[in-house]
């Protein structure tokens, strides 16, 4: 299938200026845990960026909703493998890094398994899955996660400690000392540049400055 035909089935990838290359996401309003945390002061979701700014533009909202609707297709895995293969085909090795969920989160353990299958079938790409849905991670084994995949379980409280139920995590700091690796993006015009800590299994926790 050609690129435009695939995109008509599952939607286009996001291309955030911060990331090395592409991302994928669904509406933040579809978050399960996040929809509860966004109402609680002091949580990492209380000022959710994906519910404001350009994310509220009708064309952007529709693009994210299209991706959400597509995950229920029985061919979704095949389409996504083709889409990622095409989009990353001509990129330099330094850019073969993909982020899942620049907005939104896992919808079910079946959704997670579908994503992991896409990752398994695109071994030339390193994948980072950011999630707060610990109940879904509890239903899989870390040893079953493909070697080219990083799943980071996010803490729910600002200045909170990393979750203990998963080995790779992320936190958000405001007043506390960063735990583990401190994300340098705020000193780099909001960009990753040559940092790939989020995709690095040697880095147990990445701490992001609240902004």
List keywords for this structure.
single chain, 211 residues, alpha/beta, seven-stranded parallel β-sheet, globular
Describe this structure in words.
With 211 residues, the chain is of the alpha/beta class. It has one domain (3-156). The chain has 6 helices and 7 strands; from the N terminus they run H-E-H-H-H-E-H-E-H-E-E-E-E. It has helices at residues 3-10, 34-37, 58-70, 76-88, 109-120, 134-137, and strands at 23-24, 97-100, 126-131, 149-154, 169-173, 181-182, 205-209. A 7-stranded parallel beta sheet has the order 1-2-3-4-5-7-6. The chain is globular and about 50 Å long. The model has no long low-confidence stretch (mean pLDDT 96).
- Mean pLDDT value: 96
Q: Helix proportion of residues, in percent?
A: 25-40%
State the low-pLDDT regions, or none: none
Major sheet size, sense and barrel closure: 7 strands, parallel
Count of helices?
6
Number of domains: 1
Number of strands: 7
The percentage of residues in β strands lies in: 5-15%
Structural class: alpha/beta
Radius of gyration: 16 Å
Q: Measure the end-to-end span.
A: 41 Å
- How would you write the strand order of the largest sheet? 1-2-3-4-5-7-6
Q: Helices and strands, in N-to-C order?
A: HEHHHEHEHEEEE
Which outline best applies?
A: globular
Summarize the structure in short.
By secondary structure, the protein is of the alpha/beta class. The protein contains six helices and seven strands. It has helices spanning 3-10, 34-37, 58-70, 76-88, 109-120, 134-137; strands spanning 23-24, 97-100, 126-131, 149-154, 169-173, 181-182, 205-209.
